[in-house]
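Appendix B. Worked example

We walk through a single record from start to finish. Start with the input: the chain for uroporphyrinogen-III C-methyltransferase, Sneathiella chungangensis, length 266.
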Amino acid sequence: MEKILSKIPAFEPGSVWLVGAGPGDTGLLTLYAYEALRQADVLVYDALVGQDILELTGPDTILEYAGKRGGKPSPKQKDITERLITLAREGKKVLRLKGGDPYIFGRGGEEALMLAANNIPFRVIPGISSGVGGLAYAGIPLTHRETNSAVTFLTGHDANGEVPNVKWEHIAKGSPVIVIYMGLKHIKVITDRLVGFGRPKSEPVAVIFRATLADQQVVTSTLENAASDVEKSGLKPPALIVVGDTVNLRSELDWFSPFTNDAPET
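Next comes the structure step. The output line below is what the pipeline stores for this chain.
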């Protein structure tokens, strides 16, 4: 292991690493992410980064919370990016840690552009997105030869917290599997729009809560009933919504639940 870690580029003072922490399970961290946690002077982390991951930092690492949660007071993106620049200019090794992957609905591109504009050296370390890892832990293949050769990743809200202004008709008719991040607030509107543009009411839906963690729970339903079934479950975000026939494979491929002490699936 040390031989492998020795080949990882040095975390230079005055630089920023934009790192994906993965969907939650600590074991899904990349080696680059692990080494960055050990070396960072300052860790600026998001709301979805778990305590187990934070505990991998070095003894002298300073932790700064910069989490954003819908409907709650949150740091402004501009302030977060300016803080990264300030810390780097102070000569710190700055680790910007995000849940999932920095460039998949993580606003990593915005931060990288500002770092580049201010001549701050940076490196981007991809992470396993929940749209990939979360499905795998729920027993739902992202693609499957007999069901789909295309996937659409979609955010469930725009910059203002509203339903995104996308071409819903094209998504409904053009993608056999749809993976929706941060969509729980608008699940009723989203499912209604998909049905309105031709998706069958009976099409399977899975909503994955706290994906890859020991208390992960999955609500399986249909487009017609997903919103009411989620409400009945009482479960809260973070959650991932999956629409498509690959959801049906969960009944045979749910390998993760037997390893946990979860309550029975709703």
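Two observations about the output. The chain has two domains: 2-128, 131-259. Strands lie at 16-20, 42-45, 62-65, 94-98, 122-125, 151-155, 177-181, 204-209, 217-222, 239-243.
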